[in-house]
Amino acid sequence: MKEIVVLSGKGGTGKTSIVASFAAIAQGKVLADCDVDAADLHLLLKPAVREEKEFWSGQVAFIDRDKCTECGLCQELCRFDAIRDFQVDPVSCEGCGFCYQVCPVDAITMKDSMSGHSFISKTKYGYLCHARLGIAQENSGKLVALVRQNAKLIAERENLDYVITDGPPGIGCPVISSLSGASLVLLVTEPTLSGIHDLERVIGVCRHFRVPVLVCVNKYDLNEGNTRRIESYCGKAGIEVAAKISFDNVMTEAIVQGVPVVEYSDGKVTQQIKKLWQIVGVRLEQ
Amino acid sequence: MIISVASGKGGTGKTLVATSLALSLSANDKVQLLDCDVEEPNANILLRVAMTHSQPVCIPVPRVDEAKCSYCGKCAEVCAYNAIAVIKKKVLVFSELCHGCGACSYLCPESAITEEGREVGIVESGGSGNLELIQGKLNVGEAMAPPVIREAKKYIDSSNIVIIDVPPGTSCPVIEAVEGSDFCVLVTEPTPFGLNDLSLAFEVVRKLTIPCGVIINRVGVGDEEVELYCHREGIPILLKIPLDRNIALLYSKGVPLAEGMPQWREEFLRVFQDIKDIVAANRTAK
Question: What digits encode the pLDDT tens for the residues A229-263?
C-alpha cells in the first residue's frame, strides 16, 4: 500500500480539485482529508458518514472559585496568558497543567477537552476518512494522524493499493503530521511569486522529513515566465515537474457543480490531470 | 485600530487585501502591517520593504544538570507533552515536543533544570514611509506557529492603524493572530469551498466576539451562495473584487493591486471608513 499526500504550502492552489479528480480516476484507493480545520474534499465527494467518533485530545484548566484564594500564583506562572481575574480562557490555555501542579489549595482541575470529530464515510469513489476540528481548537496534528491511521487501516483491511490524502496548507504542525512517513508528496503550486516562495519552503519540510517529492504547476499559463522559474528551480533541486495544468474556469465551475473536474469536463485540464495520475502511479512503483 | 484579515480557506486573497489596504491607508496615516501567516509569509513579496531588524523567536526548553539530578522523575510526570523522560539514570529531553510552559524547571525538587532558548522562527521588521512591515517566519521543519505569532504581535503600537495578515484555517494559529483585533475582514471566493470555509471562519470571529465584514474575491465565476449567506447572517459585504486575469497577473508578479491599478485605492479607503463606522456603532451599542 502506497500513501500519496497532496500539499502546496500556499493555500488555494488546487489541492482539493486534484485529489477529487484522482478519486475519480484511480482504482483501489482510500481517500483521506487531512485539512481538518477547513476541509473541503467532502463537498466534491459527497460522502455518506458510516462512522463518527468524538476526538478527545488535550486538557483545559478549570478553577473552582469556591476553593480559590486568589493568591495569583497561577496567573503569575502561566506563560500563555490564559488566566485573567482567576478565570481560565479556554482558547488560550495550552493544557500544560502547570497551574494545576502549583495551586496551593488544589482549586484547579484539568478537564479533558473534546476537540473535534473524525469520520469514516463511503463515497461513490470508495472510502473517505475525514475529520472536523472544533472551532478554535488545538491538536490538529493529532487529529491529522488519526485520519491517516483510519485510512491506512481500511486500505490494509480491504487490500487496496493507495491512500490518497488531501493535505492542509502551510508548513507547520498539521502539515508535518500529514507527510511524515508518506510514500510520496505531490506539491501543487501556481506560477505566482507567493506560490514559488511557499513551494520552496514546503520542499524544505519534505526534505527535512525525507519524503520524496513531485511538483505540479497549476494555472501554469497565467504567468509562463514564473512557470519556467519553477521548472528551473526544480531542475536544479533534482525534483520532477510531473505536470502543468492550464488556467481554466472549468476548475471553479466543477467546484460549483460539486463534482471532480475530470467528471465535469473532457477538455485540456482533465487530460492533464489524467496524465499526472499516470506519472504519480509510475513514480509510486519505483 | 487593529484590523485582522482572515479567510478560513487559503488562497482567497488575504495577502492581496492586507497589502493593498495597508498601502492605500499609508498615504495619509501611519500603518503597521503584521504578516502573521508565519508558515508562509507572503506580504513582503508584494511590498518589498527592506527589513532592517531581525530577532530570533525562542521557546524556553529544559536543560538538565545531571550533577544535581536525582532522577526522581517529577519533570516527566508533570510534562503534559511527553517532552521529557527519565529512564533509570538518564533524562531525555525531546525539545521539539516542548511547549515551553516552564513546569518542569519550576517543580524540580533539586533545582536541576534551567531553561535555554530553542529557536523556532524569527520576527523581522522594516519600514518605508508611513508603512512599517513586521513579518514572522517559522523555521522550516518546526511545527509550532503560535509562539512566532505571539512575538510578532508584541510589535503592535495601537496608536497606528494595524493590519494583520492571518494564516488560513480555524485552529490555534488563527486564534493567536486574530485575538485582540477590533475588526476582522473575512476574504472569500464565491464557490462552495469559499462558502464552507467562510462559515467556519465566521464561527471563529463570533466565538472571539469580534465584529467582521466580508470581501468577496474573484466575483464572476462561481455562484450567489456566499452573498446569500452574508445577507442571512447579517454580515456586511465590504467589497467585491472581480475575477480578472489582469488582477491575477499582477499578483503573480508580486505587484500589489493598489499599485498596479491605483483606482482601487479609493475602494480600500472606503472599506476602511466602513470598518471604522461599524466598529464605532458596535462600541456605542455596547
Answer: 999 999 999 999 999 999 999 999 999 999 999 99
* Mutation choice for A interface testing from B39, B84, B225 by most A CBs within 10 A: B39
Q: Are strands B183-188 and B131-138 parallel, antiparallel or unpaired?
A: unpaired
B51 touches chain A (CB under 8 A): no
For A16-41, write each residue's pLDDT tens digit.
999 999 999 999 999 999 999 999 99
For residue B117, tell me if it sits in a domain.
no
Q: In the listed set A114, A133, A158, which residue is the last one of a domain according to the structure?
A: A114
DSSP one-letter code for A220 = G
What stretches of B51-89 adopt beta strand conformation (E)? Answer: 53-64, 84-87
Query: What crossing angle do the helices spanning B192-207 and B225-233 adopt, rounded to 10°?
Result: 20
As beta bridge partners, residue A60 has A111
Asked if residue B15 lies in contact with residue B135, where contact means CB atoms within 8 angstroms, the answer is: no
Q: Pull the grid cell for residue B186.
A: 473575512
ipTM above 0.90, yes or no: yes
Report the alpha-carbon distance of residue B251 to residue A247 in Å, rounded.
15
Q: Which amino acid is at A198?
A: D
User: Is the CB of B203 less than 8 angstroms away from the CB of A80?
Assistant: no
| Rounded Cα distance, B82 and A271, in Å | 48
Contact across the interface for B191 and A255, Cβ inside 8 Å: yes
Domain count, chain B: 2
Mutate to test the interface with B, among A252, A253, A257, A261 (most CBs of B within 10 A): A252
Instruction: Choose the mutation target among A41, A101, A113 for the interface with B, i.e. most B CBs under 10 Å.
Output: A101
Is residue B119 domain-resident?
no
Output the nine-digit C-alpha cell for B206.
463570533
Beta-carbon pairs below 8 A across chains A and B: 185
CA distance A183 to chain B (A): 18
Q: B60 to chain A: nearest residue by CA?
A: A79
Q: Quick check: is A51 in a domain?
A: no
Q: What angle do CA A118, B78, A77 make, to 5 degrees?
A: 100
When pLDDT is cut at 50, 70 and 90, the band that residue B157 belongs to is very high
